């Protein structure tokens, strides 16, 4: 357990000490929130769907967590490049503990990032339908973070090309984000698009966040949570397996 804690703490310290990263990582969510939230707000309102800022804020929070988690996998490549990963793997601890420490650290950082974006959304005018529902929203933030931090670890374990990693991740992440319903309602979509959104794991995390924060569920709390727990377990198992096979 001490190895897991040390690696978890390392991820937190590395994030907290990088003020540039903290500030810069808020740029993209703010762009989506302000440019789309206020730019498309009148169109969304005329369609009788209420405030677009209210609708898009949970999607922006989920987006910030997703991007932070997936690209945390590149830290494995940096550690491989500079020799830290080799020193970690030869330590008298199991690779499972190393993987768990890194993944949980990345998930914690991403959850904290989501909370910062939530604060930015509150400043921009977003208001949850019930403050008592915030703990429920934090649960979905954590589930999204654990799910995609595990996926980032899995990809970081098999990809060795430092230049190719961001390209591959963008190829995976952007469709996952745009097809999750983060920017538009999932109701009344074409049949093909509906089927695709239903197999997107981020869809259930975004729906859980939106339902918790503004009370607009497409599925249900029980279904969203069950799917996220199942996918998090599957991705964690995949990440652990691939990390155990990592070659230096």
Automatic annotation (TrEMBL):
Signal peptide: none annotated. PROSITE patterns: ABC_TM2. Belongs to the ABC-2 integral membrane protein family. Residues 20-246 form the ABC transmembrane type-2 domain. The chain crosses the membrane at residues 20-40, 52-78, 99-126, 138-159, 171-196, 216-243. GO terms for cellular component: ATP-binding cassette (ABC) transporter complex. It is found in: Cell membrane; Membrane. GO terms for molecular function: ABC-type transporter activity. Keywords: Cell membrane, Membrane, Transmembrane, Transmembrane helix, Transport. It is a multi-pass membrane protein. This is Transport permease protein.
